Amino acid sequence: MEQPNLKYIKELSGDDIEFEQKFISILKDEFPMEIAAYKEHIDSKETNEAADVVHKLKHKFNILSMEETYRFAVQFEEQLRTGKTDMDSDFRITLTRINDFLKTI
Amino acid sequence: MTCIIIDDEATARAIVAKHCSMVSDLKVVAEFDNAIDAIKLLNQQDVDVVFLDIHMPGFSGVDFVQTLKNCPKVVLTTSDTEFAIAAYEYEAIVDYMVKPLTAERFKKSIQKVKSALDKKGTPVSNQQSGSGSDALQELYINIDKRLIKLHFNEILVVKAQGDYIDITTENKEYHVHTTLKKIKDKLPDKIFLQIHRSYIINFSKIIDIEDNSVLIRKMVIPISRSNRPELMRRLNLV
Questions:
Q1: Which positions fall inside the Response regulatory domain (chain B) (predicted)?
Q2: Whole-angstrom Cα distance, residue B223 to residue B235?
């Protein structure tokens, strides 16, 4: 199972430790909000709105250098646009794993 | 150079701002989490370039470009590659970067912006560029904040429905918020013909013509008296 990492963030930050800390802080704030929004839309059967959130989460997966997870999210976003939620349970597992990772940094 | 950053994601704005800080002659004037607030600023103040997320709820990047009368140079940022072709239909858009942005790619983009500014010097119009729709093979329609590509040769009929149009393709029908006149300007004259005030047809899809109607698939499309001469002129009649 693919694990998130800070490779991209380190490259982006370079020697700028202050930026790195600030960026991680933004990520740690934004990610749980998007998870909550995603779950709310799924629970309300608002699949198009859920797809919009998945679209944003895709970018986070890239930031955390998770290429496989990104591709999974691309498929899931397309699926949600058609009103289907078959990949929801697997997606939630991924979100939990990333959220747990963010708590450690 | 001055710029603004528009993206509904805080992380995305932070990344663009970080890259901007590495360019010595580039100043970030403001950051926005929505395009509407950015338009308010641009109505009061000019900037050289806008880093613009294309996929935002409510008011998309494309809506932004279409809305501004004198649009600054725009660099699109997005997680999708599928919008790339549509993006370059607008003269204001000088580059298109797929997230996550890298320093190397950002530098290239800045070079493109500088080149574009050197050529024009002033903000450009948001009119679509190119030599007209005849050069293109497709158009994009905006459905629920998604840009969907339609190849001209898959479009059968376009029907006016008040403030909307119905586009019937080989496989699907799309309900789009625009006018028949607007889409007519996007469709190549060689392939499409307006045969009624409410109908544009793909000329190559005609099965037969009977009296005052055209048959396309199972659709019977009326021909108006005023449009009939042009239709007859276009027929390769034996």
A1: 2-114
A2: 14
- Residue A42 falls inside a structural domain: yes
pLDDT in tens, B9-21: 999 999 999 999 9
CA distance A103 to chain B (A): 17
Yes or no, beta carbons of B9 and A29 under 8 Å apart? no
State the CB neighbour count (10 A cutoff) for residue B62: 23
Residue of A nearest to B99 (CA): A59
The C-alpha of B174 sits at a distance from chain A's nearest C-alpha, in angstroms, of: 14
Q: Which helix (H) or strand (E) holds A42?
A: helix A17-43
Residue where a domain terminates, one of B96, B125, B154: B125
* Nearest residue on chain A to B102, alpha-carbon basis: A12
* Residue B102: how many other CB atoms lie within 10 Å: 16
Residues B167 and B228 in one domain: yes
For B230, the domain range is 136-234
pLDDT tens-digit map of B223-238? 998 888 888 888 877 7
Residue A39 has pLDDT above 50, yes or no: yes
In the structure encoding, which two tokens stand for residue B117, read together?
A: 């500014």
How much is the average pLDDT of A58-67?
A: 95
The answer to whether residues B61 and B52 touch, using CB atoms and an 8 Å cutoff, is yes
Is the pLDDT score of B132 beyond 60? Answer: no
Residue B85: predicted pLDDT: 52
Claim to verify: residue B121 and residue B171 sit in the same structural domain: no
Cβ contact B96:B88 at 8 Å: yes
pLDDT of residue B118: 82
Q: Which domain holds residue A42?
A: 7-103
In this prediction the ipTM stands at: 0.94
